[in-house]
Records
---
Amino acid sequence: MSAATTAVPAAAEAARGTRRRAPLSDRRRQEARLGLLLASPAIVVLLAVVGYPILQAVWDSLFNYKLTNPDARSFVGLGNYGLILSDPIWWQALGVTVLITVVTVVVELVLGFALALVMNNALGALRPGLRTAILIPYAIITVVSAFAFRFMFDLTSGFVNAWLPFVGDDTDWFASFGTAVTVISISEIWKTTPFISLLLLSGLAQVPGELQEAAKVDGATWWQRMRRVTIPNMKAAIMVALLFRTLDAFRIFDNIFIMTNGAAGTESVSFLAYRQTIQRLEIGIGSAVSVLLTIAVALIALMFVKGFKVNLAASTRAGR
Amino acid sequence: MSARAKVWWWVGGIAIFLYCLFPVVWIVSLSLKAPADLDDGRFLPSSVSWQNYELILSGSASELFLPALRNSVGICLIATAIAVVLAALCAYAVARLDFPGKAFVLGLSLAVSMFPVISIVTPLFNIWRSVGLFDTWAGLVIPYLSITLPLSIWTLTAFFREIPWEMEQAAQVDGATTAQAFRKVIVPLAGPGVATTAIIAFFLAWNDFVYGISLTSTEAARPVPAALAFFTGASQFEEPTGAISAAAVIVTIPVVVLVLLFQRQIVAGLTQGAVKG
């Protein structure tokens, strides 16, 4: 992708070319055929596993189709979409999803940057230990962390009410919308901030040391160096972290399922799709919600790639 | 760096340790509480009890937990193995060969990794029921490929690009056969990347919840995360807090041990082929 990485294969190719003395175009064609042959199983599987079901979902979403009454299946065109988009339940779920996404991503970005700075500056014995510790939240499955936080804030088993001086001992965190969303967001933030901070840490490593030194010599304060040198040079890493976390947060499901099961108005778009399809067996409406969710995720990705000019090819290889 | 700054970086470092370990210590401590102490509202248990572990390993909850553990291990290993083999072929082609559609391969896997799992679940639920894959191992292995395969392609491509492939030719010039050159030069160079990719892919599969609860209905295929969500107490008034905590600790230990063993490679793999967390 970058000049440095293509240079090596090009040289190797040249070496191979002279050694075999085969006509270049022939060898090229052979290589192309081998490349396609090796890549095609993975591509076929990806298309079959994701492409086919999503087409099926688009098709199913055009029908009034309930598994409890399969014989009444009838074509309704875009009727399901009209039904969903005119229903406050959809807008409530979308609102909750956007709220959780924005709050967690912003907090994670700030917190993740702070963690990355500490890891970048921590000295001696602490550094390898920190790299290990930061991977623990990443390694723990979301359902387990959701249970840990649920039990923490729980009325009977939890200790949070006793520890926090400004809340009553009988505060039921999961009973009202504000507090429930707060706890859901906290567990999401705990679990995924380390991933952001690892990406930002590799971004920090890319900031040229000479630039920092030059700014220091010129008398720039720590904050000025951060704003004028460090952050601009990390733009690619920040953008990629933002994109991945935004898309990931937008799909939030596990935490909500474990903590509130959608009660207190905490149902996300993913949860709505799950409830319609798996619990209510409304294949038609559930499919339409799934398609709308897919469109939303695609729009977010498009917005990032076009609007923020994220160069995925370059920045997913951050860190060298 | 001044002495004061050093102190602050140490304070920051210790704060990170607390941050990372806090919920883990809590769930471990909860799992060690005796049933009578579960609701005492204390962070640490007043005395250590193994009753919760007995409950899920040999007691009444073991019928739920042990089959789920077996399902999770089996399904995740199979899905990881398939993904890594297919991805290795694909990543080798992308990293080493010139063929049309390279950008499409990477673009497709990136798009799939960003795809909301729930959107695939809806149609699969219906298809699997009609073809008999609902509540079977294969019925989870196949959708798990949508999680493990894209990430494996990206990470392995990043790793394979780092390998100095000319060394293979150099070995052949020095008189090694193609097979020898591959085995003695490429396998040791590519091995760590493949292992890291397998670990990361395994995590992602192990972490899945949506497929697990949607495409299974009994202990025939239900994986651990889904089983945890369906744990119930001895009576409807009893919360299965202790059993869930103990089961949570058991499914966490092997994963954390893997992370601790391979932390260096995992950090490299995550940041180089960063596709999903």
---
Amino acid sequence: MAKYEEFLVEKGLFITAILSILVILLIIGFIFREGLPAIESYGFFNFIFGLDWSPTEDQFGVLTMIVGSIGITLLSLLFAVPLSLLCAIFLAEIAPPFMRKILKPVIETLAGIPSVVYGFFGLIVLVPFMRVQFGGTGFSMLTASLILTVMILPTIISISQDALRSVPHEYKEASLALGATHWQTIKNVIFPAAIPGIITAIILGMGRAIGETLAVIMVAGNVTQIPNSIFDPVRALTSNIALEMGYATGLHYNALFATGIVLFIMIMILLVIANYFHYKKKVVIGGGYL
Amino acid sequence: MDLKYKLGIVIAIIIIIAYLIFIPSKSYERIQIAGSTSVQPVAEKLAEKFQETHPNVRINVQGGGSSLGISSVSQDITDIGTSSREIKAREKPGLNEYIIGKEGIVIAVNNQNNVNDLTTDQVKDIFSGKITNWKEVGGPDLEIHVITREDGSGTRSAFENLIMGDTEIRPDAIVQSSTESVKQAVRQDPGAIGFVSLARMSSDVKALKIDGVAPSEETVFDGSYNLQTPFIFIVKGEPEGIIKEFIEFTLSPEGQAIVKEENVVPVK
């Protein structure tokens, strides 16, 4: 009987695993099927490098939005990575247990707040603040990046914290026994050993920043232009899809799916980079690696 | 737990699911409505009231935009399409339209702005980027921040038809995705100008007089306020049965009272 049950569980798990792969393949297939006609009829290079997006006149160039998406994402990583890595090191190595007990749930709550709330906060508080401080309309790449920074902090903090804490205790003990200080141990032993996990954390945060839609729509200004400075409004790829999907028909509809393809390829590239670093930076000990 | 027992539960669940899928529930007459997001609240209210007197009817109201409303009704996807803009000639063949109400489009500025009155041409020049400072139209020395809606929005296309003509809205205008966020943006920026629908107007922002006429239900109703757009129900061919009844209800005094309650100007 037990053997029978074992068999059922095994096959059940196998089927669910296959199903999830199948669902992803179906989604990819659908996006490509709906999006490719637009790329074919408008021309790949016109589509990717076109500066003009005005669907009412059948102009579908997404370069401004690629620049917008990448700009917002890189800027928010610039703010978020140092902040969250220091926070993760503090939580994993330095914080006393009672403080960790308070901080961890607080940071996790930050991840649970719906993005529309962040967006509304940005619209009501941050946009006027930016307008008064830096001029312009207040809707800008910088405003969007600041909101995104807060949104991706919890992702990077909790995952890199886990990576730091999963470094074997023997490493730390050995380092301390050799006479290294706590800081030297963190800097030269624990942090390097946790690098693959930390890179994964950063990439996941980056993925969230690229994929975030609603909050960005509310504060980025959504202007299809190449920004001259970080105080100029931009439109992200995701915002473009969300803004216009409700109204799109015909080639416009396909062009929005093609925007999705561009986004998809960007995220694939990120994942490939992440995997590359994950394996390149892994620390090999004995038969296995960390 | 015994395996037989578990198997029994699984089979019972499968039977229940199969029952739910294959045995139809009580049959209703259904009406599908889809289209303009500005018409949606009115249509929902009308549907709600109509269902009170017709318990065997189920009306489903969806948004999606005026263009979607027009195209989905002409492709027989929905029974009634809704639009907050006039139907273009090339979209028209075979479609019957029923104007259920009229909507004013308000040019809104910040409450601190001392400009009260603009002409249609001034609005056009501001939105196209020819006028870039409020002092050119008698206001403070302050840069104008133009806020518009996304491409495809019914309010935007109505605004473009009524004001812009063939001229484009300046390409660097800030795009906001809903009437409420346009209002938010205007409310907090002394230099901002945007357009919102009269139904959603509130004291958060200041409505400008256009060519000397202030937007209100009265001026939209008698036609003296020019910036107005019809709310339309579209049906393919002649409406029949329950759909006809619903449209008649909408145009009846009772239906028009509901339209008025939703701050849309009734046609009668």
